[in-house]
Design brief:
This protein has 449 residues and is an alpha/beta fold. It is built from 13 helices and 15 strands. The strands form three sheets. An eight-stranded mixed β-sheet has the order 9-10-11-6-12-13-15-14, with helices on both faces. A four-stranded antiparallel β-sheet has the order 5-4-7-8. A hairpin with a 2-residue loop joins strand 14 and strand 15.
Length: 449
């Protein structure tokens, strides 16, 4: 009888200890910092060790190793690239009170890794490239046979490649339906890529498990085109802006309101908007709410999907200037999708031109606007209006038919509308190549002799 009571008492002590561990002071912690820890836990019971392991994995810790009453192997401190480890004893006997259990930020545990990995990570950190897209493809099935096999695909994004540097803006232009928005959504994995690679901060993220990519989502945010449809009508402004930040552990419940108000102030929103609902605001104010929601997660990359196309011209200028100021202040990188060439020219450092899912021209803003190479880019620029009623432009009229994006045939997709079409354009797909330093173009006019 006494042994049974003692067993029950020990079990209750273990449960209490586990509860204290899982209720460790997490207020104000930043989940992002957990990725810098290598946590090793020693528990008195295997089930407790497994539960703690799952708990820290949810918090974003890397290389969590749990054991129960097992010794910790010594570390060779002389090995290059290996640092000293310190284990945390979460044993249930003797029972510890919650005051004796260190918080997540107090865990003095360092990461153990080979010297080569450390050097590689250091080189990646020094690189100025934030986003690199290699041969990205996104196809949507439109027809299947009797056996369920796809026989026709819509080539929404077809072999797109580009590089975005830290703190810079890449403008993406093209006519409606060319795949700009689909490309942005595929980069953020709102759509799964059919093929190709997406590298973010030196790490390939297009094929990693969804659970691992979720840890990167705060660093990659999107501002949607329609400020009316992208906001939940059932949530207040404070909830819309701070909900994801609270979910990812960027802010604690105690500091929630103050943090959201700071973000609102940064985006030009008044404090008394906190308790209001989206239907009480104009289009420009709603777009500011959308921007605040994205920036509340402290991202590095923001995909701006035509963020000013639904706004008045005067409001467009305010939003664009605010985005530029926030970029300088927070060192943000923008992938800016737009139809408005004047806006792209104002905000972008580099420009990419898309046509039917493919990148036909890419380069710095100066090279694209001053030395336009591709016939489609010339036609696109000739259609842009100028603020002078007396100015005459040499308009390029496209008279041919637009080819279908469903299983497009070989050859240049633009050859049916191009005035400079050659016989090779109908049979051979042009190579996307560097015509001049930093200026890429996919056109047979610039094939090497």
């Amino acid at each position: 009888m006494k042994k049974q009571k003692q067993k029950i008492a020990n079990k209750q002590s273990q449960d209490m200890d586990l509860e204290n561990i899982l209720k460790t002071e997490t207020k104000g912690r930043n989940v992002g910092t957990m990725q810098d820890y290598d946590v090793e836990v020693v528990a008195s019971d295997e089930s407790i060790a497994q539960t703690i392991d799952a708990r820290f994995n949810e918090a974003g810790a890397r290389q969590v190793r749990t054991s129960y009453l097992a010794p910790i192997a010594p570390v060779n401190k002389n090995a290059k690239g290996v640092t000293e480890r310190k284990a945390l004893d979460y044993s249930a006997t003797p029972a510890k009170t919650s005051n004796e259990i260190p918080s997540i930020e107090q865990m003095p545990v360092k990461e153990e890794r080979p010297a080569e990995t450390a050097i590689e990570t250091e080189l990646q950190a020094e690189s100025d490239v934030l986003l690199e897209v290699k041969h990205l493809k996104k196809y949507f099935p439109v027809k299947k046979n009797l056996f369920g096999k796809t026989v026709k695909n819509l080539h929404a994004v077809d072999d797109v490649s580009f590089v975005l540097k830290k703190g810079k803006t890449l403008g993406i232009v093209g006519e409606s339906g060319c795949g700009k928005t689909t490309m942005g959504r595929t980069i953020l994995r709102l759509y799964e890529a059919t093929d190709g690679e997406v590298w973010f901060n030196g790490k390939e993220v297009s094929k990693i498990p969804a659970s691992e990519f979720d840890k990167l989502r705060p660093h990659m945010q999107m501002i949607f085109q329609d400020p009316y449809a992208s906001l939940s009508p059932r949530l207040t402004v404070g909830e819309i802006i701070g909900e994801a930040a609270l979910q990812h552990g960027i802010v604690s419940k105690e500091n929630y309101r103050a943090y959201v108000l700071d973000v609102m102030k940064m985006c030009g929103l008044q404090p008394h908007y906190y308790e209001r609902y989206p239907h009480e605001f104009s289009g420009g104010q709603r777009q500011r709410i959308c921007i605040a929601r994205a920036l509340a997660l402290k991202p590095q990359l923001v995909v701006c999907d035509e963020p000013v196309s639904a706004l008045d011209v005067s409001i467009q200028a305010q939003i664009i200037n605010m985005l530029k100021e926030l970029q300088k202040e927070l060192n943000l990188s923008y992938l800016f999708i737009s139809h408005d060439l004047s806006v792209v020219k104002h905000i972008s450092d580099e420009v990419g031109v898309m046509y039917l899912g493919s990148m036909v021209e890419y380069g710095t803003k100066e090279r694209i606007f001053e030395n336009t190479l591709h016939p489609y880019t010339k036609a696109l620029f000739s259609a842009a209006p100028v603020p002078n009623p007396h100015a005459k432009k040499n308009r390029v009229i496209l008279k041919g038919d637009i080819p279908s994006p469903v299983n497009p045939p070989a050859g240049c997709k633009f050859h049916t509308r191009c005035e400079k079409c050659m016989e090779i354009c109908k049979k051979v797909t042009p190579e996307y190549r560097e015509v001049e330093p930093g200026h890429f173009c996919a056109c047979h006019l610039y094939d090497e002799e």
